[in-house]
Amino acid sequence: MAKKPKTTYYCQNCGTQHSKWMGQCNSCGEWNTIVEEVLETTASKAVSWKSSPQRGNSSIAPSKVKSIRDIETQQSVRTTTNDNELDRVMGGGMVDGSVTLIGGEPGIGKSTLMLQVVLGLNQKCLYISGEESEQQVQLRAKRIGIKNDDCYILTATSTQEIFRQIELNEPKVVIVDSIQTLHSQLIESSPGSVSQIRQCAAELIQFAKETDTPVFLIGHITKDGNIAGPKILEHMVDTVLQFEGDRHHVYRLLRANKNRFGSTHELGIYEMVGEGLREVSNPSEILISKRDADLSGNAVAATLEGIRPMLIEIQALVSTAVYGTPQRSTTGYDTRRLNMLLAVLEKRCGFHLGSKDVFLNITGGIRVDDPAIDLAVVAAILSSNEDIALPPKICFAAEVGLSGEIRPVSRIEQRISEAEKMGFDQVFISSHNKLSEGKFGIRVIRCGKIEEVFQHLFG
User: What is the pTM for the complete model shown?
Assistant: First the structure.
């Protein structure tokens, strides 16, 4: 009598394992997402990416225990992708044997970005498409511009067939579009299930580590913005990139949520054009609007994303509350921090904003968590409340404390240099920041309290 395979229940939305079927997942709260899947495979179906059974894993040297002082370290070998924005976010380029997962909303440009990367490389690349036909991929490649004649396309979803073609062609870079479409014959589950995603990812990671081949995995996301599939997928890979932006706007943002080979504070900016994605080397130019008339409620802040300084425009609208409870709405900014700044203005500085609606927007569709934009937020709110436009060539770079003091921020000289480069005349900073005298051609105004800033702007 054949032994019944052991099964368990997984949530298809968040990957949580359950002992029995339930209508609602206790972890993510989604309904009708729990399905039954086979938990274990037979011993004969050992995990291996290689198609030849006799080769197996015999080439892998057995692991040995070593003292931490005796371990030899070597610098990771990086290969540039010829995409400055992607290289910056990844920490300087592709690392041999690394596995990178890139997620984003449908139609945001993930496939275009990855195809653009392999078409711009000067080495043999394999683009595996499980969603589109060869003709569809070629049409996009022609629109982008084919610069690499050593780029090959494979339309397949079986990992066994994929690895068979990889052994025959031996590419230097592999792109998988997408991980949710693949399936392995080693387990009995449908493509896109939690077990299949975990199994296929494990085989691809094993291949990347054994052959030192960089692998890029494109992943779908859920309606909450998280990468679909088990959360363990993000733990298995080396780098997790998030491609953000609004499909109705032309600008796209690339961030690293996890990076074993570099920082996660860098930001890559692209512009979607007819020929693909264009790198934006100077984001300050696109994030600051060109205004013909002076409008109240607009202020410019000098912020940092990783090591890149840039200027962003902040818009505020303060109006009398129509309903009993005033509204507090933000786009691209933390609402709780806005409430804190409004409380500081009310309690410490005497501005009566408790009965007014306040709306705040950071232009360009980006989200900023840098506390150095606090002073610009305050200036935009006060400008809208007084209905007086700020001078067009001033910017701000300081944090606001709970007692209304202007606090210093890090790397202030880079922020000032960026403002000077963009043609600004004045920059407001904290009086506690230390600067080299006579170094800048821009006027630096030091302030210790919000009242001093108000007197400079509206006094």
Answer: 0.78
